[in-house]
């Protein structure tokens, strides 16, 4: 069990210790003081993410060689992803982001917790959408996937069956995010991402799914005020129709994607990663 959970220690050390050091350095040289946390949080997330990927990638390659040697996976390991599957994974991620957020929003009717919304508003001020997509939509998912799926889930999988390893890694992924909204949201997504990773047989599947979820959430958050401003205008009906069509596409992509990769994994019949 320790071998499975140890990647979290690596992530926390880099994220907390190194991230705090970078934060202190930036606030000192810029003179922002206590406001430095909000101003530099996104940048620090990106820097610590990149620094996390390097050792995590090395550890994953060692784990992969060990699994090949122990005949847990074939040589060479992993199935290939074709371009259509890559696109499906991005849409699957976007669909999961929307519908799991919808589910969490319903739960918030009964449990009021605005911690996450308030935090995001404070730390994203001053950043462009493209900066957010780079750091939170691409770099952060890549770092989190190397730790929570490539290392933690796959190590747990060495000793457990798929459901147990996926749920445990998903719950830990949710707890790591630290507030009610994100614990539920990230916990569900983390479990699904581990399952898709397993059934697709390719480590990049969870990365693409995660990127799809984060980028869609960022774009939707940025576009929401502009779309609301169109209410009462001649364009409102057309925009509302387009949004409903988009939601239908995302629902279809989510359901079909899960079914497709589940079928692919069962047809293969053996562990590929």
What do you see in this structure?
- It is a single chain.
- The chain has about 270 residues and is an all-alpha fold.
- It has one domain (about 1-270).
- It contains 9 helices and no strands.
- The chain has helices spanning about 1-30, 35-70, 85-105, 115-125, 130-155, 160-175, 180-200, 205-230, 235-270.
- The mean pLDDT is about 85.
The count of DSSP E runs of length 2 or more, i.e. the number of strands, is 0
Please report the number of helical segments.
9
> In this structure, how is the largest beta sheet organized?
none
Helix content: over 70%
Radius of gyration: 20 Å
The tally of structural domains comes to: 1
Mean pLDDT score: 87
Categorize the overall geometry. Answer: globular
N-to-C order of helices and strands? HHHHHHHHH
Low-confidence stretches: none
Q: What class do helices, strands and sheet pairing give?
A: mainly alpha
Distance linking N and C termini: 19 Å
Strand content: under 5%
